[in-house]
């Protein structure tokens, strides 16, 4: 699936469908990217190294879980029971979120919380981070979901 991301504003999220699943494309602001390392100690798998639940592409095994710090690509389905988390990008205290919330996603079904890299917080029902699908860029503004340098996606 090809997606033109030209003109995406910082802080904007787009949702596309890939293989029957919602895929989120988020253009993070510089402030959102800068906030990512501030809560690594609170995350279950900050570098996306665990593999018992799903495999993270090598290019997403980093703090921002993406090829480029500002563009995030995630499958919008909670690994716990398949619900779709809600975007909660605004930092600060909010209902059902901690007072020091830095922005991210909240699963309404059982309360799992994920940061703005899709990494799950410790002691939450979700057993894993949100999935990063295979993807690559063709040029500066064309994103190809379901394919990377290794070829077509298997999942």
Structure, explained:
There is one protein chain. The chain is mostly beta strands. The protein has one domain (2-152): Rieske [2Fe-2S] iron-sulphur domain (Rieske Iron-sulfur Protein, 3-layer Sandwich), CATH 2.102.10.10. The protein is built from one helix and eleven strands; from the N terminus they run E-E-E-H-E-E-E-E-E-E-E-E. It has a three-stranded antiparallel beta sheet with strand order 1-9-8, with no helix packed on it.
Largest sheet features: 3 strands, antiparallel
- Which fold name fills CATH's third level, the topology? Rieske Iron-sulfur Protein
CATH architectural type: 3-layer Sandwich
Strand percentage, roughly?
25-35%
Radius of gyration: 14 Å
**Secondary structural class:** mainly beta
- Give the CATH H-level superfamily: Rieske [2Fe-2S] iron-sulphur domain
End-to-end distance: 14 Å
Write down the overall mean pLDDT.
90
In N-to-C order, the SSE pattern is EEEHEEEEEEEE
Oligomer: single chain
Strand order of the largest sheet: 1-9-8
Question: Summed up, what is this model?
Answer:
The protein has one helix at residues 30-35; strands at residues 2-4, 13-18, 21-27, 71-75, 86-88, 104-106, 113-115, 135-137, 142-145, 147-148, 151-152. The chain is mainly beta and 155 residues long.
């Amino acid at each position: 699936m090809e997606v033109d991301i030209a003109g995406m504003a910082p802080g904007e999220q787009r949702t596309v469908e890939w293989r029957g699943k919602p895929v989120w494309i988020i253009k993070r602001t510089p402030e959102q990217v800068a906030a990512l390392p501030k809560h690594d100690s609170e995350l279950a798998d900050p570098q996306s190294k665990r593999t018992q639940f799903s495999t993270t592409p090598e290019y997403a095994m980093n703090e921002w879980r993406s090829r480029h710090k500002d563009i995030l690509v995630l499958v919008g389905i909670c690994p716990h029971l398949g619900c779709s988390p809600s975007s909660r990008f605004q930092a600060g205290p909010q209902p059902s979120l901690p007072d020091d919330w830095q922005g991210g996603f909240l699963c309404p079904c059982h309360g799992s919380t994920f940061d703005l890299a899709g990494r799950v917080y410790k002691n939450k029902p979700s057993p894993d981070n949100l999935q990063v699908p295979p993807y690559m860029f063709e040029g500066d503004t064309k994103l190809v979901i379901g394919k990377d340098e290794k070829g077509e996606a298997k999942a």
